[in-house]
Every structure is written in structure tokens, then in C-alpha cells.
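In full, the data:

***
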Amino acid sequence: MPDTYDLIVIGSGPGGYVCAIRAAQLGLKTAVVEKRATYGGTCLNVGCIPSKALLYASEMFEHAGHGFADLGIKVEPELDLSGMLAHKDKTVKSNVEGVAYLFKKNKIDGFEGTGRILGPGKVEVSADKGESQVLETKAIVIATGSDSAPLPGVTVDEKKVVSSTGALSLEKVPEKLLVVGAGIIGLELGSVWRRLGSQVTVVEFLDRILPGMDGEVAKQTQRILKKQGLDFRLSTKVTGVRSEKKGLRVSVEPVSGGDADTFDADIVLVAIGRRPYTEGLGLEEAGVETDERGRVKTDEGFKTSVDGIYAIGDVIAGPMLAHKAEDEGSALAEILAGQKGHVNYGVIPSVLYTDPEIAVVGRSEEDLKEAGIAYRVGKFPFSANGRARAMNATDGFVKVLADEKTDRVLGVHIVGHGAGEMIHEAAVLMEFSGAAEDLARTCHAHPTMSEAVREAAMAAWFKPIHI
């Protein structure tokens, strides 16, 4: 072990492990401090990866039970929940072992324990058994991610009242599941258990689902999910959860005031958002400034208020997305190696992995109106797409927003099967400041779902062909 590292990363989630690997590739002596027994952070262990394993598995179960018959396939699926959870665990194991392999391949030293910043250049690592050691380094990167935001007055025990972590490992399908929060996490996990047989009610404080997303996309998504069986109670707040012999009694009331109501539930999932995780890092003592939301303050180069200490990912401002953290980790490693690392925050996709998926990149109509930017809208429904018809995947649409004067694409919004994959051609186009006409004139294979993206671009530039 070298006397001094060039870089120590605290946290091995997507931001942390990518930063460490990229730094090592660029020749920096790198170490990672991780409090879990496995690498990968929340995303790989109890977040993105296990949730997608369950989303896909439950989607297949749903199609086998309700969609195959329309394709001339007769089956009667039987749920093996333990087998499905085993698939989830196997997927997690493969991914976290992959990160460990990459660390070994790139000669990155790993230290298991809780990291604490003693000051510039010094990180204390405390193991569970009480042992500790102090590591020295030229640069420190805070990549500790985020944690589930608590609901005031409600205690999460991960058995009956669960966060996203507990919702990934329920031992049986709850008869009644109440989800608090209509954001991405709540809708994804609510969809999983609804497909497997739960009666799902989603309670949201705001008057709409998917806050921050394009309004039209949110409305269409709510209609689709309601048709699938999710029940929504908007403009409603949860005031308490009480345990009773037969389950849970959840108290709610209108946000604007009015009569209170109650719901019976077997499981309550609290999914009202996430908050930066900085507990035990010693930020205040080290002089690292945070903002009013507990996020670490950084400049455009990810440097904190203390020289030699940097931060990336969920712990700083911006969308709490794994791929945003990855890009920041890579950019910061390049900066520390003397290069010009950069993140284009205007072109960061976001995906809701329900069925159909919802994927967005760039600005919404509400954003553009608020900014006073004149724009054109091009839309194309999947109901007019040949491949979508062949797959019985006609729900949803593509919407392209282009600058009225320059035709530059400012935002793309997709509700549809495979939207999370289709969004990337829009991201590439926008990364190079492409126009709607550029996309409209690019030949797309037929028949594909992606033709709808081209048609929407045609609609924003001139006219679509197939509608």
C-alpha cells in the first residue's frame, strides 16, 4: 500500500466506482472506502439493479397471464415469488462482483468501513469491529449517495412500513399495498406488486404524478397506470400509520383541508423522495459547506469549499440519477488527471421503468413556457406505428420540442414500450445541437418502434408521413 494516494473515493456507488476506475485508468493511485460488504452502493445493491430485475420479471408474469392470449399463446402462469426474488439476488450478486473485479483489474485498493474526513488529505476508516486507520491522499471525493427521505410521524421498520429497500424483498404478495409518493420509485415498485396481485393505492401530496416531468406525459402515464389497476389519491397527505391486528390503518386527509379518511393496508411503501447521505462524514468539522437541503456545495469542477475535497452524485445538486453520478465521476477523474472533464446537464435522460416505459431528455413544455422560449411541438402516437401494432404495444406517444427559430431540438418525451432505449438517439442528437430536420431526415429501419421518434421529429419540422 502506498504511503499516500492520489485519490480516495468515499462510496462505491455508480458515481464513486466510475470515478475510481477512470482515475486509475488515467494513472492515479486510487482507493475506495465502502461501508457495505459489497461494492455498488444503493444502486447495485438495493436500488436500480434489483428493482429492474423485479420489474422485468413481473412484466413477463403479467404478459404471460394477460397478454399472451392475444398473440395466440395459451398459458396459465403460476407465481413463484421465491424464485423471482432469487433471480433478483442473482442479478445483484453478478453486478457487485463485477465492480469488485474491475477494482482488482485497475489496481484500486478497497477499504471496508465508514469513512470520515479528518481534514484535507486525511480519511479515517472505521470498521464495524471498532478498528480504525487513517489514510492519506492528495484528493478526496465524497460519493456517498442518498438515502430514502423519511415521512414525518411514520416509522419505517422494513417489515410492514417499508422503504424501497424493504419493498424489494417482501416475503409474500401483499393483498393491499399503499404507496406514499407518486414519483419514479413509488410507481415502479407499485407496478411490480400490482402485477403480482396486490391492490395498489398511490397517495400523492401534489395534484399530479411524476413531479418535474412534462405535464402531458404525466397525465398520459396516469391514465395508462390507472387502466392497469393502480388507484390514485392526489392532493392528499398521509397523517399517520397505525398497526392493528389485521394489518395497518393509514390516515389521510386532503392537502387543502377537509374530511380525513382511512385506508387499510398490509404494507405501506414510503417513497417520497431521497435525501443526500452525509451522516458521519465529518463535513462540518472539516469545513465543507452544505446548502439548505443538506447537499454538499461544489463549484463547476466539483470542488467543495475546502481545497482537495470534491463531491459528486446524489450528494450534490442536480437530479438523483445513477448515470448523472457516473458522468460526474468520470469528469472529475479527468479533471484531477489534468484533463478537461465536463458534464452536459442539459442532456441527461430520465427513465420510468413501468410498462410502458416513460423516457425524457431535455426540457419540458412547462420549462420552455416559463423561460419564454418559442417552440414547436411534434407528436406521433404508437397506435400509428406498424411494429407497435404487431407487438400489441400501442399505448403512448413520442413528443419532440424544437426551437421555433432554429429548429434545434430542446426536449424529447416518450411514453411507450422500450422508451428507455429509444431516448438515446435523441440524446445523441441533442449533444451535437441537432435539429428536428436532422432527425427527420435520418433513415430508420422499418418496422421499428423508433420510427415513431422520426415521425415526431417530422411533425416538429414539417409534417409526419404516417398520420
